[in-house]
Amino acid sequence: MTTNDRSARLLVGLLAGAGAAHVVVPKLFDDMVPEFLPGTQRTWTHASGVVELLLAAAIAVPQTRKVGGLAAAGFFAAILPAHLKMAYDWREKPTALRAGAYARIPLQAPLVMWAAKVGRDAGR
What we know:
It contains six helices and no strands. Helix 1 (3-24) packs antiparallel against helix 3 (41-60), helix 3 runs antiparallel to helix 4 (65-78) and helix 4 packs antiparallel against helix 6. The chain is mainly α. The model has no long low-confidence stretch (mean pLDDT 94). 78% of the residues lie in helices and 0% in strands. The protein has one domain.
């Protein structure tokens, strides 16, 4: 297995795990959905979980890995507002929870870069 394959498989695991969590335990994610979005928070939570599962599937298949990786990079960038909302909403939480919410924000950049690299490296 190449380094590219290993990296893609790890990204598949991350996306599949997160997607499954959004569908199985949506309450954990509902409050992260910004209020300005139309519809219910639960609908957005489920939709984002399904998107994560679809992205995982696209990255898992070598023929669709390039598109899947680049789409995942866009997805990770698009969910930054949810992480910003969570950090703002959790500003009064205990230190450990607050730190976790704040840590999610700068972690988005490496996720975007990782997914983009998986997409770029597909087929090499």
